[in-house]
Structure formats: C-alpha cells, structure tokens
C-alpha cells in the first residue's frame, strides 16, 4: 500500500550574508593598516589576500528556516469534534468475519450503489487499519477522510481485515467501522469490496464532493 503524506507549504523567512559588505571590511582594514605604516603586517596581509577580488555584484546566501506548519483553527476544531463524536455512541453491531457491510445514505440512486458494489469506480486512495487498536483506528479513519476531502477523492478503500487473529469474538474493527462511517456527513455509501480488492476484509467508500 502506498503511504500518504501531507505537506503544507508556506513561505519561509531567510537570513542573508552579503559578500559585498564583507569585501568592504577588508578594504577598510587595509586602509587602517596603511595609516599606521605597519609595512610588515600590511605586506603579509596583502600576500595572503592575493587573488581575492571584490565582487561587482551582490550574491546572497539563503539560509532557510522552515516555519511550523500552520493549521487553521476551525480545521483543528472540526477534527476534535469528529474524534469526540467517534468516541461516543452505543456499542456497534457485531459482525462475523464473512459478513458483508452495506450502507447508503438517503438519495443515493440504485444505479450508483450497484456500480459501487461491483467495484466499477476508480479507487483514488486507501488506508489499511491492520494492527491498529480501537483508538488508533478511529484516529486513522478521521485523518484519512479529512485528507480525502482535501484532495477531492470520491471513491476510496478502507482495509479493516477479517478479524481472524482477534482474541475477541468477531472482527472488532470491522464492526466499529460500520458504526463510525454511518455518522460521517461526507460518507454517501459504503459496501464490502470485491474479492480481488479484499472481499469482506475491506470496503469501498463513496464520498460527497467537497
């Protein structure tokens, strides 16, 4: 699975070192030494500086200092609200390993949902929840869906696993995911994937346009 990484770009402040100013200081030092008639020191200094010429143009050395990425306050509040919402609510319905998941919000046409179930829509992104506990899985889903909205992705896959190795009865993350996604405004529909895309261990998710 290809990893996803979000970068925010921002202008960065710079510090500049001007060689023209540096060469001026050398000229002033030579003049001061001449005024004191210190011939030996002046001769040694000039010999050491042979071949060094004053640059006719100013060249700046740019030292980048990246600023910490700034996240809009409202976006952060929205994220916290989503996480709080996902932590609340009744116990999810319990599913067996081979059970299929299926949901569509009001207004989704039959033809659209059929295409989703057949895997006809191009998958634009995915997230794998294997190995994550309940809290980490919730956070991963929230961040992933926010990323999908930012990128304008409409159809994605979430791999939740079949829960065969779970010490508890049934696939825990699968059952929780069914409840989480039904609460999300941006989720229009979801269903278990085709066998070649993970079968009952993954779902296709159709998202609202941002």
TrEMBL record:
Listed PROSITE patterns: SMR (PS50828)
SMART domains in the cross-refs: SMR (SM00463)
Record-annotated Smr domain positions: 127-208
GO terms assigned for molecular function: DNA endonuclease activity
InterPro entries listed in its UniProt record: Smr_dom, Smr_dom_sf
Superkingdom in the source lineage: Bacteria
One Pfam assignment: Smr
Protein name stated in the entry: Smr domain-containing protein
Native species: Hydrocarboniphaga effusa AP103
